[in-house]
Amino acid sequence: MIDRQEVMDFAREFGLTPQVVEKDYTLGWLLAGIAAHPEIGQSWVFKGGTCLKKCYFETYRFSEDLDFTLSNPEHLSEDFLLETFHRVADWLVDQAGIEVPADTIRFEVYKNPRDHNSAQGRVGYRGPMQRRGDAPRIKLDLTDDEILVLDPVMREVHHSYSDRPDTGDSCPQL
Q1: In sequence order, what E strands does the chain have?
Q2: Which residues contact 95 (CB under 8 A, 6 or more apart)?
């Protein structure tokens, strides 16, 4: 894990708050953990504003959530998601030192307006800023009913920090 000073330096350089930089840093590692997971790493397609920033346009606006289209509808189960993200949390602490307290991993599966299952999740973390109190959270939005017109491509995830993970993510083609 990078240290607090690296977060502060990035915040000053880009005119952002340290909390936004810490979240961007943690998003990068969470994406690496998802990509490294044997079941979801190849079947979840990363999309949305964070995908644009992390995989295509490094200077795109900072975004704070992760959106995925899932190719396997069985993954839209609360039990599956909780078990999977507990394993991703173990990977994060082993690989980056980012803690994801077990009680901060939450998912809710619901029917979307198109009458298909979707899920919204929140994952708390303790990153380089080591804040006290409630852990900051990353929001996840998952759906399986969007049509992928083109095959997804593996893209390198932009991670400007000194402890770069070695994984990419499956993203829609632009």
Answers
A1: 44-47, 65-70, 105-111, 117-124, 137-143, 153-156, 168-171
A2: 29, 32, 33, 36, 165
SS3 at position 153? strand
Residue-wise pLDDT tens digits, 13-39: 999 999 999 999 999 999 999 999 999
For β-strands 137-143 and 65-70, DSSP reports them as: parallel
Going from N- to C-terminal start, the domains of the chain cover: 4-149
* Six-digit token string for 39: 């079941």
Q: How far apart (Å, rounded) are the C-alpha atoms in residues 172 and 122?
A: 23
pLDDT digits (tens, 9 = 90+) for 99-127: 999 999 999 999 999 999 999 999 999 99
**pTM strictly above 0.90:** yes
**Residue 151: which of 72, 40, 43 has the closest Cα?**
43
